């Protein structure tokens, strides 16, 4: 069993990226009156998010005379757009917010400017433990909530695995064997999108879970104390293993020119056997796959001892209320629906791939998550590293520098030195 440091245990976050685009909406406006005298709330969320669409429909049904004007924003532009609008006072009433720290729209970043309304008196707050609550706000205030835990597993196309006579790897050696087996069969083991918005940044998260953050739960605290660095840690081993995977042909050819939807399609079609990415993407991949295709998940190993494999699990992105909203109470009422058992049930019904963050009567994890569901609720988990970082610059440096590393334009030492410099500001 692994324990998690005080700071790391508190950070359950990531990038559960599943989005929504509703036509006819525009960002940067606040609540007001519609043409028929209705109260209009504005909301900025993910492009292509069926969950948000269903929640909006329910909220409008429950609140006659209220309509929600929704703007769907893509990744990664959503980060800068919502931040810019909050700073300028033109943001929507309800906005996407990430827990923890590390990007421009995390709760702890936005708390510094008092851009979000305090939600501490909301009925759903008690569903979250102290560790979760500590990254849902700052200075004792709850500033956001999220409806799902996000997991970073390896997602496998079951038929593709069977076609090459393989099973999901449980050791690092088996990962390399799968790469060779897939290559011999004219496939790649793991789809990889290494352009903006791709899944390339999740591979080191999966590796460092077992190599660093699980075995050394105090590492993040040591970084904040100035006693540890990325450069002098098992991050070097993780990036060396990443390079080994690239050099062994484990990933999509020309990954640095491959977009996420292409990589997802490769897994859906069986051209790639698997993909290492956040769990909400399972639903998207399933929708792209031929009828009858099934998928399974497993923790991605970094050592040859299966008992050492640790699973990255985090509280996903969610919603907060703009402190400058002209209709704060109504905006809070929507967030209350979003995080109620009714709202969580709507979320599960619209995306069976999510892992709800609160109780839902009768819920059982979908078959696709069966391989990681038990571990996701155990002590063999760690938070996503980027949500423990002290500023958004570290994440920006990591995201851009990792692309150069994958493409062979920089070394792991250069990348980690840059991340250390960003950490120290």
Number of separate structural domains: 2
Q: Main sheet, how many strands, which sense, barrel? A: 5 strands, mixed
Beta fraction:
5-15%
Looking at the overall shape, the CATH architecture of the largest domain is 3-Layer(aba) Sandwich
CATH superfamily of the largest domain: Periplasmic binding protein-like II
Question: Judging from the principal axes of the Cα atoms, what is the shape?
Answer: globular
Describe this structure in words.
The chain has 425 residues and is an alpha/beta fold. It folds into two domains: 6-150 and 315-364, Periplasmic binding protein-like II (D-Maltodextrin-Binding Protein, domain 2, 3-Layer(aba) Sandwich), CATH 3.40.190.10; 152-313 and 382-423, Periplasmic binding protein-like II (D-Maltodextrin-Binding Protein, domain 2). 38% of the residues lie in helices and 14% in strands. It has helices at residues 6-9, 50-62, 77-88, 107-111, 130-133, 158-163, 172-184, 202-213, 219-224, 235-247, 260-269, 281-288, 328-339, 341-350, 370-376, 392-406, 412-423; strands at 32-33, 39-46, 66-73, 94-97, 137-138, 141-142, 148-151, 154-157, 188-191, 272-276, 295-298, 311-315, 318-321, 355-356, 381-382. The strands form four sheets. Strands 1, 2, 3, 4 and 13 form a five-stranded mixed beta sheet that branches. Strands 14-7-12-15 form a four-stranded mixed beta sheet, with helices on both faces. Strands 9-10-8-11 form a four-stranded mixed beta sheet. It is globular, with a radius of gyration of 21 Å. The model is unreliable at 1-28 (pLDDT under 50).
């Amino acid at each position: 069993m692994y324990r998690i440091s005080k700071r790391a245990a508190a950070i359950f976050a990531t990038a559960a990226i599943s989005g929504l685009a509703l036509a006819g909406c525009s960002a940067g406006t606040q609540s007001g009156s519609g043409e028929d005298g209705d109260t209009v709330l504005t909301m900025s969320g993910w492009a292509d998010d069926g969950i948000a669409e269903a929640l909006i429909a329910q909220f409008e049904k429950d609140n006659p005379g209220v309509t929600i004007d929704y703007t769907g924003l893509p990744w990664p532009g959503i980060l800068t757009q919502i931040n810019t609008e909050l700073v300028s006072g033109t943001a929507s009433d309800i906005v996407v917010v990430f827990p923890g720290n590390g990007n421009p729209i995390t709760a702890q970043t936005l708390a510094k400017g008092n851009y979000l309304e305090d939600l501490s008196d909301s009925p759903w707050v008690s569903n979250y433990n102290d560790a979760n609550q500590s990254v849902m706000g700052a200075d004792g205030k709850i500033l956001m909530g999220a409806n799902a835990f996000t997991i970073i597993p390896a997602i496998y196309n079951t038929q593709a695995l069977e076609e090459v006579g393989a099973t999901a790897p449980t050791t690092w050696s088996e990962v390399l064997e799968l790469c060779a087996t897939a290559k011999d069969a004219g496939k790649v083991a793991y789809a990889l999108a290494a352009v903006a918005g791709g899944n390339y940044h999740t591979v080191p998260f999966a590796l460092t879970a077992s190599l660093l953050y699980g075995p050394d739960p105090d590492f993040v605290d040591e970084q904040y104390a100035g006693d540890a660095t990325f450069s002098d840690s098992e991050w070097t081993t993780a990036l060396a293993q990443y390079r080994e995977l690239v050099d062994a042909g484990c990933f999509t050819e020309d990954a640095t020119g491959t977009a996420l939807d292409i990589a997802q399609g490769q897994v859906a079609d069986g051209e790639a056997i698997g993909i290492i990415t956040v769990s909400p993407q399972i639903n998207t991949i399933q929708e792209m796959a031929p009828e009858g295709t099934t998928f399974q998940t497993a923790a991605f190993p970094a050592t040859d001892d299966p008992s050492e494999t640790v699973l990255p699990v985090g509280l996903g992105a969610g919603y907060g209320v703009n402190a400058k909203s002209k209709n704060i109470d109504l905006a809070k009422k929507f967030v209350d629906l979003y995080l109620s058992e009714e709202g969580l049930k709507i979320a599960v019904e619209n995306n069976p791939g999510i892992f709800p963050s609160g109780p839902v009567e009768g819920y059982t994890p979908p078959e696709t998550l069966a391989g990681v569901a038990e571990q996701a609720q155990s002590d063999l988990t760690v938070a996503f590293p980027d949500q423990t970082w002290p500023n958004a610059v570290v994440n920006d440096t990591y995201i851009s520098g990792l692309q150069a590393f994958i493409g062979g334009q920089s070394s792991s030492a250069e990348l980690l030195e840059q991340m250390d410099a960003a950490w120290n500001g």
